[in-house]
Amino acid sequence: MKTPSLKIISAGLLVSVAASAQERPGKVEFSDSNILSGTISLTPGSQLKIQAGPKVRVLALDRVAELRFAPERQEMERAWRFKEAGQTAKEFFGDPYPVLYLATTVTLGDGEKISGHLYTTVLYVAAGDDVRKVILLAKQRGQEDGKYESVVYPKIISFGDTAAKTEATMRLKLSGLPAQSEVVGISRGALVRLTAEPRGANGEYEMPSPLGEKFFLAAKSGTNMTVGWPAAPDQKLVALIQSALTNSEDFFDDRRVLGAVADTANSEIYSLVFARRKGKTYGTSNQTWRLELYRWKQDDDGRVMLAGRNYFFRGTTAENQPPPPVELSEKLWNLHPADGVWSDDGP
């Protein structure tokens, strides 16, 4: 079985919009009127992630002007367990306790408001040497036999500086691509997939903004795929990730690491992987493939653990067909912003 052909087509930095501020002055106001003030930060490498309808939005902290939380619904619940292993019958025990399901409204620096449900997020509020942890949960539980009013939750998080403004979309000008190429970005961190749409002249696209986060970019024309990636492969990292994939089970039984880059500031590694199913699948002899981006966490001993994954493109090939070719392009890796447009023809 052939592996996808790999070609380096042209030198750079991870594509990035403005780097996120790691710390900001602000305060957390709780539902019981208590206030916690200081320097607010997130866990290194994390972002705010909110489910807004069918879409997931990922926000850098410096783009946020304010967060507000309010009960969307409230219920009294009781602890329970299955009566017998393998059975669905439950038995309840203990006194009822109140549960609040919170909706979140995020106001961005340009005034845009995003409403939905915030994924669990850890904030740190530092005042001198005193550092407090504040956990933001979409579901808040109170004490047994308590009332709804007794459940304390962060109500408003505001900041003492001005949030950076971010457009809802970003413009791309990619002169080196064939006409009508499919273009997809994946944000760093939460790995949100961003689909670009053609706009105006050939090679011009509009893509949902990564809202302050760095992103990877890939394009597809016919069966040919191009990914923004450094030309010089880090063979040590590639071997490390290939070994980690070999030792893990997956639907795809043929996974080749095409590249790996380290994010040393967050103890993370990003890898580009071509994954293919060689074994038979029900109802078809075609072989499913995906061009994927993996995010790995690395501990102090150099061991890695998969922390997330998403795909640029996916498809199928007949059993006797070679896999589609993948090119690594430094032009897409090293985009340059000018007058609000990110271009691949910069210096």
Précis, in short:
With 347 residues, the protein is mainly beta.
Mean pLDDT: 85
Q: What global shape is seen?
A: globular
**What count of domains describes the coordinates?**
2
| Percent helix range | under 10%
The chain-level structural class is mainly beta
Let me know the number of strands: 26
* Order of secondary-structure elements: EEEEEEEEEEEEEEEEEEEHEEEEEHEE
Number of helices in the DSSP assignment: 2
Strand content: over 45%
Rg, please?
A: 23 Å
- Contiguous low-pLDDT stretches (5 residues minimum) are 7-21
Largest sheet: 11 strands, antiparallel
**What is the terminal separation in angstroms?**
40 Å
Structure description:
By secondary structure, the protein is mainly beta. The protein has two domains: 6-16 and 167-343, no CATH class; 23-159, no CATH class. It is built from two helices and 26 strands. The chain has helices at residues 235-246, 330-333, and strands at residues 6-8, 23-30, 35-42, 48-52, 55-59, 64-82, 90-108, 113-118, 121-127, 130-136, 139-141, 154-159, 169-173, 182-187, 193-195, 197-198, 204-208, 215-221, 224-228, 254-263, 268-276, 287-298, 304-317, 326-329, 336-338, 341-343. The strands form four sheets. Strands 2, 3, 4, 5, 6, 7, 8, 9, 10, 11 and 12 form an eleven-stranded antiparallel beta sheet that branches. Strands 1-24-19-18-14-15 form a six-stranded mixed beta sheet. A hairpin with a 4-residue loop joins strand 20 (254-263) and strand 21 (268-276). The two termini are 40 Å apart. Residues 7-21 have low confidence and may be disordered.
